[in-house]
Design brief:
18 helices; binds aspartic acid; Proton glutamate symport protein; 77% helix; mainly alpha
Length: 429
Amino acid sequence: MLDRLKGISLGNWILIGMVLGLIVGLIVNFYITDPFIKDIVLMNNVFYLGGNLFIKLMKMLVVPLVFFSIVVGVASISDIRTIGSIGGTTILIYLLTTAVAVTVALAIGIVVQPGAGLHMAGIADTANVTANQTMTDTILNMVPDNPFSSLASGDMLPVIIFGLLIGIILAKLRDETEAFNKIFTEGNRIMMEMTSIVMKFAPIGVFCLMARTFGGLGLDGLLPLGKYFVCVLIGLAIQAFVVYPSLLVIFTRLNPVKFFRRFFPVMFFAFSSSTSNATIPLNLEKLSEMGVSRDVSSFTIPLGATINMDGTAIMQGVAVMFAAQAYGIDLGTSALLTVIFTAVMASIGTAGVPSVGLVTLTMVFNSVGLPVQAIGVIFGIDHILDMFRTAVNVTGDAICTIIVSLKNKAMDVDVYNGKKPPVKEEHIM
Ligand code: ASP
């Protein structure tokens, strides 16, 4: 029996933790009526502690892991032009997939009409969200004022830019900076080892996160605004299971089933934690397992977790149509094009942490003059949608990374196809 349990992979343990957490959460919500046991003991202590402890451990890894791995990854690509072309193609693919995502969402909104018949003016305004950054700010903030404070506060874009520059310089100076090269390589090794240790706690963390969410919401959280909810889910499903596999087949000829079979644990974790940032370590591990070289993924995955939010863009596209219909506002073609553009920009500005997509949604609403009060209505169910869209966000990052890696000969297709084992030290699951 014990041997059998030991044989279960970490990926499957994460899935088990997620399903058990859902079931236990619903049981707590329906059957435990004693407020002391339910709220104080379980919700606010056991589940809260278990879930947040794990998220904090993952967050703890992110900055040093991303920083070391970007430096080492970029430094190991000796040709600076290759770095430029990888960066350029990656950003282009990220932006294009996001534009496709919003377009899909708008189309669904037009066909299904999620907001029709809902007279929004009569619903109380409960939202209190404001867009905290303009696009110009986002671009300016990419360059750190002080790289150490960016590292300390975990500002991903400036950290990526700073790491990129150090990597390029190490590649250029190579022999003169041998000691530094060694420090970064060993730092990277240490962070990878720490990741694999922290990851062992993932099933428990995921269990607690799910139990707390559904212990609090029960099924009620899913019932109101059903049409809006279903539209977002349809959009996310199309993006994840139609758009991404098609891109994979068109650009790489790789089998998408093999991708999903290995990638599901990453989606489960993103789903349970609602944060692309905290999913970076797991995403990197899984891609290594699929034969993707860390030289590319260590740069593209953190970048994607920061600027590529296809799932978020889908929610925003549907939310725009929902609000426009609920308020009886007719959006013409140019307004729809504006929505596509601003949602792509919002995706760049959305940090990979829970619920930020709702904040940047105000930016999209403002661009076409939709009343931001409408956001208050979808606020209540956003937590659950955040889980689904984060799973899509991280999938988009991985798919683009595979495409870019293969095009740049930074991927071993035999490993992807299971004909060869992955490189040992990068493999943890
Ligand atoms: N939670 C999302 C993520 O981390 C961002 C969002 O849409 O709020 O990818």
